[in-house]
C-alpha cells in the first residue's frame, strides 16, 4: 500500500512552512481568498514557497477565480497545483488547466451521497478530487471551517480519479477517517491552528504523526 499523502493547508509563515516540510507533508496549501483569515498574496506565496524542496507540492487554494487571478498566481512559478474551492464547473476547471498548464484539484462539497456521485462529472477534467464538507448557506468561507461530513459516504466508493479527504480532520480523528474512507490523501487546515489563521507547529507535527503512525 502506498504512503498516505498529507497536505497542510492555509500556511502563511516561514516557520510553519518549514515545520510542515520537516514533518513529512507531501503538499503545502496557500489560500488566496481575501475573505479568509489565511489569505496570502501571490508574492507572499512566492516567498514562502522559495525554500520548499521540489518534491513537496505547493497548492494555491482559490474560489471561483478570474483568469487574471490565476495568471498572477501562475506567474509566481511556485505552484504545482491549483485547488478550485468554489462552484467551478468541469468545463471551467478544464479550461483553467489548459490555459495555465497547472494541474487542477477540485474541491467537492459533500453533505450527501449525491454530492459524491456528482463528482464523476469532473473525471478527466481535473487531476484530483478533494472531498470536503459542505459549509452552511451564507457561511463566510466554502472551506477551512473545521466541518466534517459523514465519512461512511465514501466507504467502498470507487472514486474515478486521484482523490483526497478534507473537512474537520484533526489529530484525534484522522486515523479513523483514513480507516473508514481509505483516502490516499488527507488535507487539514483549521485542525492544526491555535486560532483562526494561526498555524501551530506542534499541532502540525502531531497531525502528521497521527495520520501515519509508526
Ligand atoms: O482555509 C480557508 O480559509 C479556505 C478558504 C476558502 C476555501 C477553502 C479553504 N480551506 C480549505 O478547506 C478545507 C478544509 O479545511 P478544515 O481542515 O476543515 O479547516 C481544506 O482543504 C482547506 O484547503
Automatic annotation (TrEMBL):
GO molecular function, one term: phosphoribosylanthranilate isomerase activity
Name of a matching Pfam family: PRAI
Catalysed reactions, semicolon-separated: N-(5-phospho-beta-D-ribosyl)anthranilate = 1-(2-carboxyphenylamino)-1-deoxy-D-ribulose 5-phosphate
Domain N-(5'phosphoribosyl) anthranilate isomerase (PRAI): 6-209
EC id: 5.3.1.24
Residue stretches spanning the membrane: none
Keywords on record: Amino-acid biosynthesis, Aromatic amino acid biosynthesis, Isomerase, Tryptophan biosynthesis
GO biological process, alphabetically ordered: L-tryptophan biosynthetic process
Broad class of enzyme this protein falls into: isomerase
Known pathway: Amino-acid biosynthesis; L-tryptophan biosynthesis; L-tryptophan from chorismate: step 3/5
Keyword Zinc among record annotations: no
Keyword Amino-acid biosynthesis found: yes
InterPro entries found in the cross-reference section: Aldolase_TIM, PRAI_dom, RibuloseP-bd_barrel, TrpF_fam
PANTHER family, per database record: N-(5'-PHOSPHORIBOSYL)ANTHRANILATE ISOMERASE
Family to which this protein belongs: Belongs to the TrpF family.
Name of the protein this chain belongs to: N-(5'-phosphoribosyl)anthranilate isomerase
Amino acid at each position: 500500500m502506498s504512503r498516505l499523502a498529507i497536505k497542510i493547508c492555509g500556511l502563511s509563515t516561514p516557520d510553519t512552512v518549514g515545520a510542515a516540510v520537516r514533518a513529512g507533508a507531501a503538499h503545502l496549501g496557500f489560500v488566496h481568498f481575501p475573505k479568509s483569515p489565511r489569505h496570502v498574496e501571490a508574492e507572499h506565496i512566492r516567498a514562502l514557497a522559495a525554500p520548499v524542496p521540489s518534491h513537496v507540492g505547493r497548492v494555491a487554494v482559490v474560489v471561483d477565480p478570474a483568469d487574471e487571478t490565476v495568471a498572477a498566481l501562475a506567474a509566481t512559478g511556485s505552484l504545482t497545483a491549483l485547488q478550485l474551492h468554489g462552484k467551478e464547473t468541469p468545463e471551467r476547471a478544464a479550461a483553467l488547466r489548459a490555459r495555465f498548464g497547472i494541474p487542477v484539484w477540485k474541491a467537492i462539497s459533500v453533505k450527501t451521497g449525491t454530492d459524491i456521485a456528482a463528482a464523476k462529472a469532473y473525471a478527466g477534467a481535473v487531476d484530483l478530487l478533494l472531498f470536503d464538507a459542505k459549509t452552511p448557506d451564507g457561511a463566510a468561507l466554502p472551506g477551512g471551517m473545521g466541518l466534517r461530513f459523514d465519512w461512511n459516504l465514501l466507504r467502498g466508493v470507487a472514486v474515478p480519479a486521484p482523490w483526497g479527504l478534507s473537512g474537520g480532520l484533526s489529530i484525534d480523528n484522522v486515523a479513523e477517517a483514513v480507516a473508514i474512507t481509505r483516502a490516499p490523501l488527507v488535507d487539514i487546515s483549521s485542525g492544526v491552528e491555535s486560532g483562526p489563521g494561526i498555524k501551530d507547529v506542534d499541532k502540525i507535527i502531531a497531525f502528521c504523526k497521527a495520520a501515519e503512525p509508526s
